[in-house]
Design goal:
Blueprint: H1 2-31, E1 45-51, E2 57-58, E3 64-65, E4 71-76, E5 80-84, E6 87-92, E7 98-103, E8 111-122, H2 127-131, E9 143-154, H3 165-171, E10 172-183, E11 189-190, E12 192-198, E13 209-210, E14 228-229, E15 235-243, E16 246-253, E17 258-260, E18 265-266, E19 278-283, E20 291-303, E21 323-324, E22 336-342, E23 346-354, E24 359-368, E25 371-377, E26 390-398, E27 401-409
Antiparallel strand pairs: 1-20, 2-5, 3-4, 4-7, 5-6, 6-20, 7-19, 8-15, 8-20, 9-10, 9-19, 10-11, 10-12, 12-13, 12-14, 15-16, 16-17, 16-18, 21-22, 22-25, 23-24, 23-26, 26-27
Length: 411
C-alpha cells in the first residue's frame, strides 16, 4: 500500500514538475519572444569592399576612407559625422546641413550594395518654422517631412549649394528613402520607407519618382507608396542589386529577415541608366531635413565570375572584377604606365583629359581579351606635342565599365 502511495506521489510530483516547466516556458516565450534569424542570399556574389567603421575619429569634408579609399565624406553647412563605437553617426541638426557618405568612383556595371542603418532621430520641433513659412512647400498629401537616404544611386556628384533639393530631384535614379511625416493639422506622425525609381516616360529629369508594380509605374499624383513603416531605435539593412539587366531593391530587419522586396525593374525602364552611377547614403543638403542617423556597415559585392569564357581550359584564373590601378610612377615625367584588369573580352578606350575636361589624347582603342593589361602614356597630345605640367585624368571604358583616375605630370 505504502509502495502504491509512494509510486502515485512520485507520479504526481513528476506531473507537477512538467506543468511547472511548461508554465515557465510559456512565460519566457511571452517575456522573450523567439527571434527569427536568417542569412543574406549572396550566392554568386563576392565581397569587394566592406566598411564596418571600427576606428574612432571625427570626419572632415572630402576625407576618403575604406579599402582603396572607396568612400568619401561629404559635409556641408555644419553637417557632421562621428566614427565611434563601431558605427558612423551622421548629424544634420539644422536646415541646410548635409552629412553624406558617397563612393569616390563610379559603381561597376553590375553590383550589390548593402547598408546597415538605423536609430533614426528627427527634430519635429521646427516643422512649423521650416514648412509653414511657405504653405505650398512639401505638402505631401497634407503632411510635412523630414527624411534621409538609406541608399540612393545618382548619375552625378554634387558639391556645395549645388546639392540642394532640386539637384536630388533630377539626379537620383533609385532610392530607399525614409521620412518622418507630421500632419499639417498637427498630431499624427508617420515613419514611412519608400522604394522608388526614376521612370523615363514620366520623368526626363525632375521629382517624378515612381513605384514599380512589376508591370507598370504608379501614375497617381502622390505615388510614393509606403513600402514599410520603420521604428526609431532599430537597425535595418537596405540593399540594391543591379545584375542581368535588372534592378532590385530590398529591405531587411536587423536579423537579416527580408521585410520588403518589390518586383525587379528592367534597366531600360529607369531614367539615366546609360550614365555612370555613384552611391550616396545619409542626410542630403535640403531645407526640410534635420536629424541624425547611424550607419553600421556599407558593403559592395560583385558577381562571382570565374572568367573562363576566354580560357575554356580553366588553366588560367582570370580577373573576377574590372579594376583600374593608379598609374605609376605618379607624379611622372615624361611617361607613366596605366594597368587594368578585364573580366571579359572587350573593346577598350583609354583617354587622357585635362582639368577643363578637354580630351588631350586617346592612347588606346583596341579589342582586348580578359586578363591584365597595361598601356603607357608618353606625355604627348594627339598632335605629338608635349603636354604641359599639371593635373590630368585617365579614363578607361570597356563594355559598360568606366573608371577615371587622376595623375600629375611634373617637369
Amino acid at each position: 500500500m505504502f509502495d502504491d502511495i509512494h509510486a502515485k506521489g512520485g507520479l504526481v510530483s513528476r506531473v507537477n514538475q512538467i506543468i511547472t516547466a511548461l508554465c515557465s516556458a510559456v512565460a519566457l516565450t511571452i517575456l522573450f519572444p523567439q527571434v527569427s534569424f536568417a542569412e543574406f542570399d549572396d550566392t554568386g556574389w563576392v565581397v569587394k569592399y566592406q566598411e564596418n567603421f571600427d576606428s574612432a575619429f571625427e570626419a572632415t569634408h572630402g576625407q576618403t576612407f575604406g579599402t582603396d579609399d572607396w568612400l568619401i565624406f561629404q559635409l556641408m553647412n555644419g553637417g557632421a559625422i562621428t566614427i565611434a563605437d563601431g558605427y558612423a553617426w551622421l548629424k544634420a541638426p539644422d536646415f541646410w546641413n548635409a552629412a553624406l557618405i558617397r563612393s569616390t568612383e563610379f559603381l561597376p556595371n553590375e553590383y550589390k550594395i548593402r547598408t546597415k542603418i538605423g536609430y533614426i532621430n528627427y527634430d519635429l520641433a521646427n516643422y512649423e518654422q521650416a514648412d509653414f513659412e511657405d504653405p505650398a512647400f512639401n505638402d505631401h498629401g497634407g503632411y510635412y517631412e523630414n527624411g534621409m537616404y538609406f541608399l540612393t544611386v545618382t548619375d552625378d556628384t554634387c558639391s556645395g549649394n549645388q546639392c540642394e533639393e532640386v539637384w536630388w530631384h533630377y539626379h537620383r535614379k533609385m532610392v530607399i528613402d525614409v521620412d518622418n511625416h507630421v500632419k499639417a493639422s498637427g498630431g499624427e506622425v508617420l515613419h514611412p520607407v519608400y522604394m522608388v525609381y526614376m521612370a523615363p516616360e514620366t520623368n526626363s529629369g525632375g521629382n517624378k519618382l515612381r513605384t514599380w508594380n512589376g508591370v507598370a509605374w504608379d501614375e497617381s499624383p502622390w505615388n510614393w507608396n509606403v513600402a514599410y513603416t520603420y521604428a526609431y531605435d532599430t537597425w535595418y539593412y537596405a540593399e540594391l542589386e543591379k545584375k542581368d539587366g535588372h534592378i532590385s531593391l530590398r529591405l531587411y530587419d536587423e536579423n537579416q529577415n527580408i521585410l520588403e522586396e518589390p518586383p525587379p525593374v528592367s534597366l531600360d525602364k529607369v531614367f539615366a541608366m546609360d550614365m555612370p552611377e555613384f552611391l550616396y547614403v545619409g542626410e542630403p543638403h535640403t531645407d526640410d531635413y534635420e536629424g541624425d542617423v547611424r550607419i553600421d556597415e556599407i558593403t559592395m559585392l560583385l558577381p562571382d565570375v570565374l572568367s573562363d569564357v576566354d580560357d575554356p581550359s580553366g588553366d588560367n584564373i582570370l580577373p573576377r572584377v574590372f579594376t583600374v590601378s593608379q598609374n605609376h610612377p605618379n607624379p611622372f615625367n615624361p611617361s607613366t604606365t596605366i594597368e587594368f584588369d578585364l573580366t571579359k573580352r572587350s573593346q577598350v578606350h583609354v583617354d587622357i583629359y585635362n582639368v577643363l575636361g578637354q580630351r588631350v589624347c586617346r592612347i588606346l582603342d583596341e579589342e582586348l581579351s580578359a586578363g591584365s593589361h597595361r598601356v603607357e602614356w608618353n606625355g604627348r597630345t594627339d598632335y605629338g606635342e608635349q603636354a604641359s605640367s599639371g593635373v590630368y585624368f585617365y579614363r578607361i571604358q570597356a563594355e559598360g565599365y568606366t573608371a577615371t583616375k587622376k595623375m600629375l605630370l611634373l617637369k
